[in-house]
Amino acid sequence: MGAGTVSSPNTNRLLVFLPPKRALAEGGGRGSFSPATVASYGPFDASQLSGAVGDAPLSLLPKAASVDLLFDVADVFTAQVEAPRIADSKLRQALPSLIEERLLAEAADCHFAFAIEGPGTGASPAPMLQVAVAAIDRTTLMRALDAAAQAGLRVRSASSALYSIPAPSGEVLSVRLDRGRGFARTAEHSGFAFDLESEAPAPLALAVQQLRIKRIQAYGGDASSLVHHAAQLGVEVVDLKRPFDAASTSAAVNLLQGRFAVGGRLGLPTLTALADSRLVRPAAAWAAVWLVILVAGANAYRWKLESEASALRDSMQTAFRSAFPSDAFIDPVLQTRRHLRDLRARVGQASPDDFTVLNAQAAQLLDAAPVGSLSGLEYRDAALVLKFKPGIASDPSLKNNLRAQALQQGLALRFETDNTARLAPSEP
Fold first, then answer.
1. How confident is the model at residue 4 (pLDDT cuts 50, 70, 90)?
2. Which terminus of the chain is more exposed, N or C, with fewer CB under 10 A?
3. Does the domain formed by 1-164+250-274 have CATH 3.40.50.300?
4. Domain 166-243 - what CATH class?
């Protein structure tokens, strides 16, 4: 059945073989998955093929209760490794370091999934686990899920196409060939992809020799083309005339884990599908209305605060001019303090920031410091600058004690980076 000619009744599950990532950019393509991407498909129920297979754009695939996306074998790294027996969350974080040397891509760009197979077989004294691992480029997975959501597909799982055929058993190897491309499954969680050519594929011939294969089971629409290479491969090639083995998908490592889990993405579809949803548009309109109201309210509140600040500045200026009519209005707080200090001096009262007052308080403060801590002091800008000897002011416990004592005396003590400290009355 060709693309654009889909006519199939509803089914429970649909297996969708996505094209390899490299093929998307060939022939003037968009270079990424979209609802128009043509994929091979096969509906099945209860692990058995239940309908016609064919090729169709994602948007024209038969309706199904759930869809299993299968990525090209070359686009998904799969392997089985031994890992420590730790919590799943910590194991997920450790996966990149376990297989980083075997990846062809940067581990930081990949999404990792795993399935625990059972206890390990190594001789390590620590308990180990056999873990099946799958890794895929994060952007590739996101774009595929986004395209499926736009096409209205209910994606239940995503994995490597490797799991659509059985693992090797005895001297029998399974391969799948379709649309000029094939792949072989050489172990439970490993395999390789190859292109169909006029001669027997070299990677397949090498696998036959290494695994001592006597028989090849061929799946897919191009399985018959491999029969002609049986003599070159030196094995029996059987065309099973089946597109895939549905029962083998039960061993697949589902890539939809972590942030991509069906229930782990906050139960939400992809962003593009959400934006296209008719149910979201009314909510978006109301959100825009509330945003306008919020902005208007924030501006009104800002105007109110600015009015109150202006009124407070006016009252301060009026009070200052009435008390000191001959002074220019520059810094009313500082100017008022200066006048109060002068007034106290006229009546014989010392100001809190006078040198004599600060010097007496500094002497009381330094009772908590080691003898001979100071190398000098200086009075400037109504504050006393204490100059400590090198190494004294770097003691955290001494600094904390001096700050606490200064606070009790109504002083503010601020240490600088040049072994000095500024002592001044606390702000009222």
1. very low
2. C
3. no
4. alpha beta
Phi first, then psi: give them for residue 269, nearest 5 degrees. Answer: -75, 180
Spatial CA neighbour of 246 closest among 328, 166, 314? 166
How confident is the model at residue 2, as a pLDDT? 46
Is 189 in contact with 132 (CB distance < 8 Å)?
yes
CB of 40 closer than 8 Å to CB of 54: yes
Helices 396-408 and 355-365 cross at an angle (nearest 10°) of 130
What are the structure tokens assigned to 324, written together?
């000191």
**pLDDT tens across 39-74, in order?**
999 887 655 666 678 899 999 998 888 899 999 999
- The mean pLDDT of the chain is 83
Here the tokens at position 196 are 């169909």
CATH code for the domain defined by 355-425: 3.90.1070
Please indicate whether the domains covering 1-164+250-274 and 166-243 agree at the CATH topology level.
yes
Residue 402 CA to residue 105 CA, distance in Å, equals 58
Q: What is the 3-state secondary structure (H, E, C) of the chain?
A: CCCCCCCCCCEEEEEEECCCHHHHCHHHCCCCCCCCCEEEEEEEECCEECCCCEEEEHHHCCCEEEEEEEECHHHEEEEEEEEECCCHHHHHHHHHHHHHHHCCCCHHHEEEEEEEEEECCCCCCCCEEEEEEEEEEHHHHHHHHHHHHHCCCCEEEEEEHHHHCCCCECCEEEEEEECCEEEEEEECCEEEEEECCCCCCHHHHHHHHHHCCCEEEEECCCHHHHHCCHHHHCCEEEECCCCCCHHHHHHCCCCCCHHHCCCCCCCCCCHHHHHHCCCHHHHHHHHHHHHHHHHHHHHHHHHHHHHHHHHHHHHHHHHHHHHCCCCCCCCHHHHHHHHHHHHHHHCCCCCCCCHHHHHHHHHHHHHHCCCCCEEEEEEECCEEEEEECCCCCCCHHHHHHHHHHHHHCCEEEEECCCCEEEEEECCC
d(CA 73, CA 185): 10
What is the residue extent of each domain of the chain? Answer: 1-164+250-274, 166-243, 278-330, 355-425
User: Which residue matches tokens 């979209």?
Assistant: 34
Per the CB < 8 A criterion, the answer to whether 162 and 251 are in contact is: no
Helix (H, G, I), strand (E, B) or coil at 283: helix
- Taking the C-alpha atoms of residue 116 and residue 112, their distance in angstroms, rounded to an integer, is 13
- Rounded to whole angstroms, how far apart are CA atoms 353 and 344? 12
